[in-house]
Amino acid sequence: MAHVHVIANQKGGVGKTTVTVNLAAVVADTLGRTPEETPVLGVSTDPQASMLEWATRVGDELPFDFEQCDDNPRVLSKLRAITRYAHIFVDTPGSLENQPILEEVLRQADDVIVPVEPEPLAFSPAARTIQKVIAPIGVPWRVLINNWDPRDGETDLKQTRDYLALKRFPTFNTVIRRYKLHARAAAEGVTVVQYPKNRVALEARQDFFKLALEVLGGLTSQVKPGHSGNAVSTGPGAGVA
Ligand SMILES: Nc1ncnc2c1ncn2[C@@H]1O[C@H](COP(=O)(O)OP(=O)(O)O)[C@@H](O)[C@H]1O
Ligand SMILES: [Mg+2]
């Protein structure tokens, strides 16, 4: 059975598609894809299909298989039963209208990644998604701070972490920093694993390898109760009062 990882936040522009594509790419690249076979499937349930456009531009270099599935709830309800892949990463729509699609995939999820930008004032949509949609389904979820620009200093990052701690939202240690490389990747038809081998690209790529380690490490902690550390909220919506 595949592990299903859902990337969700009903606010648009927070990095769902960026995170889905690059996380799927590093996991596929690391777990050993061959030209014929890959252990990873990427799925987009977003009718806006930005992941489809990106995947199409990457073409044969895409390290994972891809399906656009926004109009087929029957397929979505069977994601967990897919045996051909070890991991499935699911991109979801950034709007309230598409909530039934989101709920369908959340019911299939082993874990949920909620990207937020380090702007505390922009948090209410993320908190709403967590409290109203993700937590009631009872899947483990964690917040991911994405698009932090170190040149802006630590203040916003610290305020974001403080807010998340106050809310008792489980949060990834990894922060995905802002890089022009990420912003251009979709248009240029590349994923992090195709970035050049210079220092900046290595740093940009490193964030996604760290995230992958946390995501896949979280799966181990879920099957071994008592060893979860602070990695994963295993209770339904732990910390959400
Ligand atoms: N870490 C990042 N560094 C640079 N640009 C980013 C980063 N994350 C997202 N972006 C850019 O922000 C915009 C919104 O990201 P996207 O992944 O499309 O969000 P969503 O899928 O949540 O709507 C895109 O232009 C994307 O390239
Ligand atoms: Mg998107």
UniProtKB/TrEMBL annotation:
Gene3D superfamilies noted in UniProt: P-loop containing nucleotide triphosphate hydrolases (3.40.50.300)
InterPro entries assigned to the protein according to its UniProt record, in alphabetical order: CobQ/CobB/MinD/ParA_Nub-bd_dom, DNA_Partitioning_ATPase, P-loop_NTPase
Domain CobQ/CobB/MinD/ParA nucleotide binding: 6-191
A Pfam family it matches: CbiA
Protein name: ParA family protein
Organism for this UniProt entry: Pseudonocardia eucalypti
Higher taxonomy: Bacteria, Bacillati, Actinomycetota, Actinomycetes, Pseudonocardiales
